[in-house]
Design a protein that fits this description.
Length: about 280
Amino acid sequence: MSGVHQPKGSRAIMIAVGLFAAVWLLPVAWVLILSFKPNEVLMMSGDPVWKPPFTFKNYINIIETSSVFRWLINSAIVSVSATVLVLALSSLAGYGFARLHFPFRNTIFVLVLIGLAIPEQAVIIARHQLFTNWGLHNSYVGLILPHLSLPFGVFLMTQFFRGIPQELDEAAILDNASRWRTFWKVLLPQTLPVQATLGIFTFLLVWNDYFWPLISATRPEMYTLTVGIASVQGNFAQSEGLGYLMAQAVFAGLPALIVYLIFQKQIIGAAAGQAGR
């Protein structure tokens, strides 16, 4: 019977994790509740926010904004395209650094890692001038390209490829498989869990990006959702209504939450796989 009961230490850890999760979710619940509150009630009443009345008017006002679905499509195109391209480039680069031998391989890999320490703001002026000369502003290409240089993705895929046994490559070579076939048919399927993690990370990073779209997309029809929603906000919560602002935050974050819920098994599998290495 003693083996049926959990140790006290495990119970304490679970309780601590539960409390931490509850504290982390409190701001999310607060934003969600406020998004359903009438703006005039929030401005005039001091009652607790969880008490009625509630309304869908804040969300209806967002949907009635003429360009909101165009901004939603723009964000989807940019985020999905950048995610697919990052996965392709990171997988190829990771395979090259992990499996191929070429001059200055280690030096180039170190240079890639140095990119992790360079903030986007440090290169924003040079990037802006470059994209202006190329005529790429206010285009999907201009919004996607900067996200393709993701050193973290190259590092993650390189480390994962290095953890795959070399015997798989040798067995494929004995079967007269080419380098490309070995990569595509044998090794790449082994990386699907970590690619799911990298894909979710990239999608959320691009979807929530505000800084570069604010600079590159100057025409309303090319706004992403983050920039578009910010463009219709007033300077203060009193001008638009606090409930309306909270509804905008929920509306912008909901697609990212849906994507995470769909791929949560892959993310958990990747985390478990990495922990077991």
